[in-house]
Specification:
134 residues; alpha+beta; five-stranded mixed beta sheet; 4 helices; 5 strands; 19% helix
Length: 134
């Protein structure tokens, strides 16, 4: 996804609020997106319960309260250099996980991308970038 498309999502005047039809794992990528592709910013390296995360049907990348991407996960892996070559500086990130996956199919993109994250998942001042919808 290009920066222009993301900017158009973030600048919507009256965005529709997402309604979750799947178990969605929301990951905020406000800061990591500046250094990596949207996929890489979303997938690596989070303090997360990999077993609970494996229950998600879809991972949604969020930025400034908007859903900007959707991914299907093939598997969660420890954040090590072996699992994420070129991403795991100094051998990895102990206690953190990342996923290997792909962009979600068009019907899921249509359901979520470009929509606003419901207020119930946007607690002001919350520092944790991970949220579950189930």
């Amino acid at each position: 996804m290009t920066n222009e498309i993301i900017e158009s999502i973030l600048n919507q005047k009256s965005p529709e609020t997402a309604v979750f039809h799947h178990k969605a794992l929301l990951i905020t990528v406000n800061k990591t997106f500046k250094r990596w592709s949207l996929y890489d910013a979303t997938r690596y390296a989070w303090k997360i319960d990999s077993k609970k995360a494996s229950d998600a049907d879809v991972v949604l990348a969020t930025m400034k309260g908007f859903i900007v991407a959707a991914f299907l996960v093939d598997g969660w892996l420890e954040a090590t250099e072996a699992n994420f070559p070129g991403r795991a500086e100094s051998g990895g990130a102990p206690g953190r996980f990342g996923f290997v996956g792909r962009e979600a199919p068009a019907h899921m993109l249509d359901l979520y991308v470009g929509k606003r994250v419901p207020d119930s998942y946007r607690k002001w001042g919350a520092a944790n970038p991970i949220r579950y919808t189930w």
